[in-house]
Amino acid sequence: MRDFGKIFVLALIFGALGAADSAYGRLNVVASTPNYGAIAEAVGGERVQVRTLARGGEDPHFVTPRPSFIPILNRADVLIESGAELEIGWLPPLVQSARNRKIIAGADGHIELARSIDLLDVPTGRVDRRSGDIHLAGNPHFLLDPLNGGIAAEAIVETFVKLDPEGEEIYRENLRSFLATLEEKMQGWKEALADYDGTEIVTYHKNFNYFARRFGFEIVGEVEPLAGVEPSPRHIVSLISRMRSREVPMLWIESHRPRRTPVRVADQTGAVLVTLPEQVGGVKEADDYFALIDFIVTQIVEAGS
Predict the structure, then answer these.
(1) Domains in the chain: how many in total?
(2) 293 in helix, strand or coil?
(3) What is the DSSP letter of 72?
């Protein structure tokens, strides 16, 4: 458990600033990750000011809770997070310390996007520590399915309209533009990946399950034996054997993962190691949500050619 004592003291200091300090009448929006921030900016336009807590290259499960987050959350009108326990290890204590009623759980300004998504990998039966780092609500990495990006945009706009009804026309026009771009992009992404329908892959973690389902890839194994558990030598030997027998052509890993073991697995199986960003800003080319998916698709196509 991290020590939040100093952060709590800072919260008391910044509490005097007030819970709402919307710059120039705009909504102050805080997003837990860059993906949510990018979508909020796209649909909010000039009526919102967006700050993002996690950085593009960070694992969203394990973000360092910086003291500077406290005044940002203290002045927020809206907090956008994944939910489904993605941020459970770092965000709740920060929200509590910020003492901002607008963004606490259940408030109008608190958005848990997982509530709007049909989540994959919902565990069944008994779950305990032996099951690994299991998210009881389901897999929280849903935004790598672009259609879930559209659902997220719609949910964000509904909150913006509720809090800022004067901007409704602008928000809804921005949403229409976002969804039209998404529809056009989806056609291109499907065409680019059409030849890979049914392709078997291995991933490091379950980050790409939604992307794989959307575009027809079949995940046949993970480097992690269980979610959040580092692989044992025995597991890696078994994984290498399985990949060889099935002639798995690609191994996908997130850019923040350690590379030593995946490189070994790729070398011993002949699979192409494909390093992919999970978040906007994870690489310089992925500077917005659509650019993120563009980059992922391009990397996969290049790896398979």
Answers:
(1) 2
(2) helix
(3) H
Residues 212 and 267 in one domain: yes
* pLDDT value at 134 more than 90: no
User: CA 144, 96, 142: angle at the middle one, nearest 5?
Assistant: 10
174 and 273, same structural domain?
Answer: no
pLDDT digits (tens, 9 = 90+) for 175-211: 999 999 999 999 999 999 999 999 999 999 999 999 9
Is the domain of 203 the same as that of 298?
yes
Burial of residue 22 (number of CB atoms within 10 Å: 0-12, 13-18, 19+): middle
- Residue 219's domain comprises 192-304
**Dihedral of the alpha carbons of 164, 165, 170, 171, in degrees to the nearest 10:** 70
Give me the long-range contacts of 270-277 (CB less than 8 A, separation at least 24). Answer: 270/244, 271/202, 271/243, 272/303, 272/304, 274/250, 274/299, 274/300, 274/303, 275/299, 276/208, 276/252, 276/300, 277/56, 277/57
Single-letter residue type at 35: N
Exposed, middle or buried, 304 (CB in 10 Å: 0-12/13-18/19+)?
Answer: middle
CATH at residue 63:
3.40.50.1980
Phi, psi of 177 (to 5 degrees): -65, -45
